[in-house]
Task: inverse folding
């Protein structure tokens, strides 16, 4: 085995000394550490899994790079909110379309009111806000809070 390593160095540099082997081992370890570091960094945003938007708390998970199970929670008691967008179906004007976020635990209290669309619209908007923060790096400020 060692003779192969010696031959390898002799082929490249024309001679072999033991420090060459140690230096190569050292460089390989450094490279591995660098790769691990880069991989960890690219996954760092995955710690970002909640945000306060439209006066309520949004939580989600990641499946690969996609945002999944995105939903809103009460800022007071933390329970899941109920989304009422029935009103959107009857409204024709976009500005009349309103989605209400209601907390049953807080006595059916309205926690938020989003004008402009139904729940799909709202989820799209929130998703967009999350992705924007991941892209420009401002999610780091959110995770510190
Ligand atoms: Zn509540």
Result:
């Amino acid at each position: 085995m060692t003779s192969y390593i010696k031959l390898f160095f002799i082929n490249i540099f024309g001679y072999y000394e033991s420090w060459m082997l140690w230096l190569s081992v050292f460089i390989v370890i450094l490279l591995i550490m660098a790769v691990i570091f880069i991989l960890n960094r690219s996954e760092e945003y995955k710690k970002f899994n909640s945000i306060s938007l439209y006066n309520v708390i949004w939580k989600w998970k990641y499946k690969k790079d996609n945002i999944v199970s995105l939903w809103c929670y009460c800022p007071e008691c933390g329970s899941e909110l109920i989304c009422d967008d029935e009103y959107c179906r009857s409204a024709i004007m976009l500005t009349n379309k309103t989605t209400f976020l209601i907390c049953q635990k807080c006595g059916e209290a309205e926690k938020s009111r989003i004008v402009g669309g139904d729940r799909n619209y709202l989820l799209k908007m929130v998703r967009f806000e999350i992705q924007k923060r991941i892209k420009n790096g401002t999610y780091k400020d959110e995770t510190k809070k």
Remarks:
- The two ends are 55 Å apart (CA to CA).
